[in-house]
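Sync notes, pocket subgroup
Present: LS, DG
LS reminded everyone that the earlier model was apo-only. Rerun requested with calcium ion included. Inputs:
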Amino acid sequence: MHITALAGGVGGARFLRGLLAAAPDADVTVIGNVGDDMTMHGLRICPDLDTVMYTLGGGIHEGQGWGRVDETFGVAEELKAYGVGPDWFTLGDKDIATHLVRTQMLGAGYPLSAVTEALCTRWELPVRLLPSTDERVETHVVVDDPEAPGGRRAVHFQEYWVRMHAPDARAIVSVGVEDAKPAPGVLEAIAEADVIVLPPSNPVVSVGTILNIPGIRQAVAGATAPVVGLSPIVGGGPVRGMADKVLAAVGVDVTAAAVAKHYGPELLDGWLVDADADASAVAEVEAAGIACRAVPLMMSSAEATRAMARAALDLAAEIAASHGSARPAS
Ligand code: GDP
Ligand code: CA
């Protein structure tokens, strides 16, 4: 079985571990978000791709959910001694090695997809990890700033989230998206999938950024495989992160049902909401033309996460069977 997943960082990576446990024999392709990428100290940093790589490769700091386990910060201390900022973003030494390899390869002319493949070889990744695009697409967030002309200012997503701690957002802009193309293998992985999964990743700045790359949303919507998603919103709020702020910025209510309707029935065939908090959302989602089930959606343990992934695959199988039986006999 071929499974293709569109993943952000921590939420996506943790879910993917459950998916691999639920379907150990599947070929899994992960289409990763590059909207959080940035250049710092001359180094190209891809936070979401690295979170997936470190998590599935066994190098992640489990408690944090991002960055390397047993990390040291010698370089960061030296930069501080030189008075070189920014002081709100700290890179660990082991992590810097990843960015050095990436930056060197990009400088030599390799596309990000080839660089990502090379980095993942070292980690013997149990999935194929593809950046959604080889072009630069960077998420910027428009925030209020009384001192800026017009009273508003756009900041890079990392500055919005890490330095500013996610104040109210007015708009989300994908800088460079118009000129971006899906990376090699992305459209094929969507077209050839038996199941397409949207993990409980951020629907705006993770999955949304991937879908907005020209060609990807149309490919997912037109795929023969059932598309099943899991709600990152539980009980009217994100489990972690700033999805509430970025959903508000794009005019979407912070509920499990509203996120399903935001993806829409053209894209989404099935949706899972949390059984404890959101069972009442099932009827609303189904009324919108999306099959919906309520199951436990908290990734509180490896087993709970595996069961979530199993539920997504079961719903996909159910949808595929009903599509099959709906076809006129010929
Ligand atoms: P990021 O790039 O590190 O922000 O990670 P993602 O975009 O992949 O995932 C972030 C989303 O994961 C947030 O909106 C969270 O609400 C969601 N999330 C995190 N943990 C859980 C969980 O245990 N259950 C569910 N349903 N969602 C979760
Ligand atoms: Ca992210």
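DG: The chain has a mean pLDDT of 97.
LS: The chain has two domains: 1-135+180-330, 138-178.
Action: DG to write up.
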